[in-house]
């Protein structure tokens, strides 16, 4: 069974601080996606990483896919209250079904 | 552009009553469709997925069933709800081959 473990599970920080969220697995994925979810809403896609070692930047967010395509990280610089939410990584094995294996989630609270 | 709709947004049902949650997608043809359940602040558990009309695959044994009567309609049902069926249910769509999934806003189901 493929599993994706995220750490930390909870994170409460002050506005302006930096943070990193980790997403780890013993399985190889063809791609990995990061989503952010706000209470009472569905997850919203932030980024997809496909190539081992790939780094993508989305404003203050930096995403990295591990060289072996088993792990990923999300780094937020100068966090803002608007970054508050549940961050989910999800590994894909491609193919016609395109099923995702979701990580355990990281709940981030950024205090003003 | 593509949109996905889920309803109702919230539902309170007594134990033993039937259930029908509906999800429809607009702006695309022959999408893959998915039903997930999410515990509070945690990752998503895939319940069912469908790659075409009438084609349903179940990921976990449970008290629920799914149907796809039309190309862009996905229904989650139960004949008799259990207390353990409470949760946040999310519908998603994607195209195949590693494309990201796109989520509806979910249904909060409470069983009394």
Write a structural description.
The complex is a heterodimer of chains A (112) and B (112). Chain A has strands spanning 5-7, 10-14, 19-24, 31-37, 44-49, 55-58, 61-65, 71-76, 85-92, 100-102, 106-111. Chain A is globular. Chain A has 112 residues and is mainly β. In chain B, strands 2, 4, 5, 6, 9, 10 and 11 form a seven-stranded mixed sheet that branches. Chain B has a four-stranded antiparallel sheet with strand order 1-3-8-7, with no helix packed on it. Chains A and B meet through strand 4, strand 5 and strand 9 of A and strand 4, strand 5, strand 9 and strand 10 of B.
What topology does this entry show?
The complex is a heterodimer of chains A (112) and B (112).
Chain A: E1 5-7, E2 10-14, E3 19-24, E4 31-37, E5 44-49, E6 55-58, E7 61-65, E8 71-76, E9 85-92, E10 100-102, E11 106-111
Parallel strand pairs in A: 2-11
Antiparallel strand pairs in A: 1-3, 3-8, 4-5, 4-9, 6-7, 7-8, 9-10, 9-11
Chain B: E1 3-7, E2 10-13, E3 19-26, E4 32-38, E5 44-52, E6 55-58, E7 65-70, E8 73-78, E9 87-94, E10 102-103, E11 107-111
Parallel strand pairs in B: 2-11
Antiparallel strand pairs in B: 1-3, 3-8, 4-5, 4-9, 5-6, 7-8, 9-10, 9-11
């Amino acid at each position: 069974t493929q599993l994706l473990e995220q750490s930390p599970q909870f994170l409460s920080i002050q506005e302006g601080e930096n943070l990193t969220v980790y997403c780890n697995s013993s399985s190889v994925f063809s791609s990995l996606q990061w989503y952010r979810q706000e209470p009472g809403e569905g997850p919203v896609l932030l980024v997809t990483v496909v190539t081992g070692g790939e780094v993508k930047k989305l404003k203050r967010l930096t995403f990295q896919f591990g060289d072996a395509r088993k792990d990923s990280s999300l780094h937020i610089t100068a966090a803002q209250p608007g970054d508050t939410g549940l961050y989910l990584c999800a590994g894909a094995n491609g193919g016609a079904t395109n099923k995702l294996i979701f990580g355990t989630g990281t709940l981030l609270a950024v205090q003003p | 552009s593509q949109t996905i709709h889920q309803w109702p947004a919230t539902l309170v049902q007594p134990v033993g009553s039937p259930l029908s949650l509906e999800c429809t997608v607009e702006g695309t043809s022959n999408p893959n469709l998915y039903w997930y359940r999410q515990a509070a602040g945690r990752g998503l558990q895939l319940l069912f997925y469908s790659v075409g009309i009438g084609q349903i695959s179940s990921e976990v044994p449970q008290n629920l069933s799914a149907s796809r009567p039309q190309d862009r309609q996905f229904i989650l049902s139960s004949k008799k709800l259990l207390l353990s069926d409470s949760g946040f249910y999310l519908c998603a769509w994607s195209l195949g081959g590693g494309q990201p999934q796109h989520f509806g806003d979910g249904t909060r189901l409470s069983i009394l």
